[in-house]
Amino acid sequence: MSELTEFEEARRRRRRKKNWRRTKKLAIVLAVVAVIGITVFAGRQLGWGSHLTNLAASLRGGKGFPVTLDRQETRQLIGVKGGVALCTDGSVTVYNTGGVITGEFLHSYNSPVSVYSGGRLLTYDVGGTDWMLTNKTKTLQSGTGSGILLGGTLNDKGTVALSRRGGSGLSAVTVYNARGEEIFLLESGDCYLSVLALNGKGTWLAAGGVTSGGGAVDDSGVFTAGSESGFVQVTASDGRASGSAYITTVATPDAISLTREDTGDKVEALNLDPGEQVDLKASAVYKKMALVSQDANYTWTADPAVGSVDANGVFTAGQVTASGDLTVSAGGRTVTVPISVAGHVNTLEDCEGDLYAFAATETASFASESDLNYVRYGRKSLRLDYDAAGGAASLTGVLSIPAGERYLGVWVYGDGSGNTLLATITDQSLQSRQLLLTALDFTGWKHVSAALPEGAVAVSALDVIYGGGEGKQTGTLWLDQFTVSNEEMHDTTPPALTLTVSGTAVSARVTDDVDRSIPQKNLFLTYDGERLGFTWNESTGTLSAALPAADAGYHRVSVSAADASGNLSRASADVLPAGERTQVFTDMGGHWADAYAAFLYDAGVTNGVSAADGSLLYQPDKNITRAEFFALTARWLGLDLSQYAGVELPFADSAELPEWALNEVKAMYALGIVNGALENGVLKVNALSTISRAEAMTILGRTQAKGYAQAELTFDDAALVPSWAADYVKSLAGQGVVSGYNNRIRPNDPLTRGEVAKLLYSMR
Questions:
Q1: Taking the CA of residue 143 as centre, how many other CA atoms within 13 Å lie in the half-sphere pointing to its CB?
Q2: pLDDT (tens digit, 9 = 90+) per residue, 463-513?
Q3: Pairwise CA distance, residues 337 & 309, whole Å
Q4: Edge-to-edge order in the sheet of strand 171-176
């Protein structure tokens, strides 16, 4: 019996060798692929329930249709020559184009997969052991084996390749000819060969697989990947049906990225408030494919200075301003995200509007103040007149406080009375308490702040408590820029602003060291002083706009921005004439101020001076008179001068004003820009006198809103700047309007008409 067996085995080997020669040479191509089925990160847990459903499928068309399948799970619908094949959980059925069954092949496979080629159907049980080869009417071959099937394929000649787990290694691929004879065996000891392909002649086989990574699945269906890269098959069954999944474990990803759990936005940097929490999600990719992972699969670390992060990626910012890095790593890959923790400021009341939030009482009244001497930011402040003869005075109102804010801030112009300023705060339970802001033992502007009580919802009153000396029961205060913040801070740094003009396209970027974003209402875009519409992306801090087409004139584009604390910044750019420009003023050819004078002419600010020969002059090197300067500035502001015709001027020398400058001076006086000067107790305007550079810079400074950063004056003659002009000179220097010459500013020298043209141009 044993000899006979040995003889049969020898004959089988000869037959196998013969078949090998008949098919010439079967070449093997091994392709290692990244993912077969589900790809997970090392250590990841994956859960799924038992989703076993009964589906009904209908095929329509022809007299045999519709075909209804009751209580069968449809696996595949495959186009075959002359009809379709339907693979279900119980059979493979072939229909012709009329919907008539030409062949029905029953099976008991748990996870059937069908492949069609050359008039044949290969159906095999993934995760099982059985397979069959059929045509449209009958079974051609069938087989079973000891190894679990991983994959299969066939070609037009009827050659079949099947991959199974086991053999002498992890998997083995068996190739059968059209007669069902085994013609080749490929075994793999380092990977599961689950992806197969045959060429048309059956002379080439491509097999792909991945290495084994192990892993385990518990009774609840939770799969835990192994710690090393590899491949595993998971099979689930409810006793009637089963299914398999192929899972690749990757220990070393190609890259790691972070997103926010709440928004899904990619995180490349974080700017957070003190104590703020953000839930981060880490993701990894391998060969451009996303890995299934959990935050706990990664190692999370953060600089202690900026905060802490837990194992699930929840970062909690520290309580003080700081900067540092958050690092996330796994499998030798790392991503680092810079973090900035800083408090924020929100504007409660900027005092630029109608002050509807306040209400007068018998002891206190209020008004909108436009005298820039009593304005800290913008163009207006709140004037508070009080009478604390009864011991206290109160101005009521409601300034709503956003949730989570911890500090109240306000600018106060003190009256030196020695009284005390308090704020009444209302909390969520409508209980009130007084908050000490400052003793009024100073004059001029001072920023004050105080910690808000827990649950504060509104500032309901401003209170002045009498505590000064005799005659100090009454007085006047000015208040500006009410703010709240989550950290005690005094922000005096303006936003950073860059502006670019290319052709008619305008782009700008605005950032702030405290405010995360600037609202659109705090930005202005102007073209020759006239406002233009623009598009603002608050999240990125970018502005875009389109300008009018270039013409023969000079133009000026500017962007200004204000932060929540009232700090202002401005950036400007030139728009040059298109083509050659005709010389307007005959005395400006080659002069350094030519473009500036032409700009004023184009803007209708100056008409020049007519020469005897009829030409137009600008006279750039002539010292400008005060009347000329006031007139140019008023026109440059674009004021409707007719509105000021009825203004009464208080100047003793008003009669000396030229007619062409009269309404201009009236407008400048009415706006508080021109105040005149006292000479021996007499108020004069000195219209025909020259104006000094310090006087001109003061006048121009008064035309602007308050809030621009003041630069330290480092000019060699900075000590010569009058005290009354110092703040305005510093502001214009900070904006780059005033730069001096040879490091001198010459504040007391007269101003020329050419210098005026440059100043007005630069302030656009």
A1: 20
A2: 999 998 888 999 999 999 999 998 888 889 999 999 999 999 999 999 988
A3: 13
A4: 149-154, 160-165, 171-176, 182-188
Q: What is the largest CA-CA distance in the chain?
A: 142
In angstroms, rounded to a whole number, what is the distance separating the alpha carbons of residues 400 and 405?
Answer: 11
Contacts 24+ apart (CB under 8 A), 744-747: 744/715, 744/716, 744/717, 745/693, 745/713, 745/715, 745/717, 745/718, 745/720, 745/721, 746/693, 746/717, 747/692, 747/693, 747/694, 747/697, 747/717, 747/720, 747/721, 747/722
Question: What tokens appear for 242 in the block?
Answer: 């089963």
Q: Give the span between the Cα atoms of 376 and 57, in whole angstroms.
A: 76
Give, as one character, the DSSP assignment of residue 246.
E
Q: What is the pLDDT of residues 606-632, one digit of tens each?
A: 988 998 888 999 999 999 999 999 999
Tokens of 404: 């989570």
User: CA–CA separation, 748 vs 252, rounded Å?
Assistant: 73
CATH class of 496-575: mainly beta
Q: What are phi and psi of 18, to 5 degrees?
A: -65, -45
Please tell me if the domain spanning 255-341 has the same topology as the one spanning 345-485.
no
What is the topology classification, in CATH, of domain 255-341?
Immunoglobulin-like (2.60.40)
SS3 341: strand
Domain ranges of the chain: 13-210, 255-341, 345-485, 496-575, 617-762
Asked if residue 31 has pLDDT above 60, the reply is no
b/e code 64-79 from CB counts within 10 Å (16+ = b): eeebebeebbebeebe
Closest CA to 82 of 100, 58, 65, 69: 100
Q: Which helix (H) or strand (E) holds 47?
A: strand 45-47
Task: Locate 83 and state its tokens.
Answer: 């009809």
Going by C-beta distance under 8 Å and a sequence separation of 6 or more, which residues neighbour residue 251?
42, 213, 227, 228, 229, 331
Closest CA to 245 of 18, 521, 37: 37
Amino acid of residue 585: F
CB 525 within 8 A of CB 559: yes
What is d(CA 658, CA 670) in angstroms, rounded to the nearest whole number? 18
How many C-beta atoms surround the C-beta of residue 612 within 10 A? 5
Assigned CATH for 345-485: 2.60.120.430
Output the six-digit token pair for 182. Answer: 């085994």
pLDDT band at 15 (very low <50, low <70, confident <90, very high): very low
Provide the token pair at 622: 């002539």
Look up the pTM and report it. Answer: 0.64
Query: For 13-210, CATH number?
Result: 2.130.10.10
Q: Please give the angle made by the CA atoms of 561, 567 and 573, to the nearest 5 degrees.
A: 35
Closest CA to 396 of 362, 372, 438, 353: 362
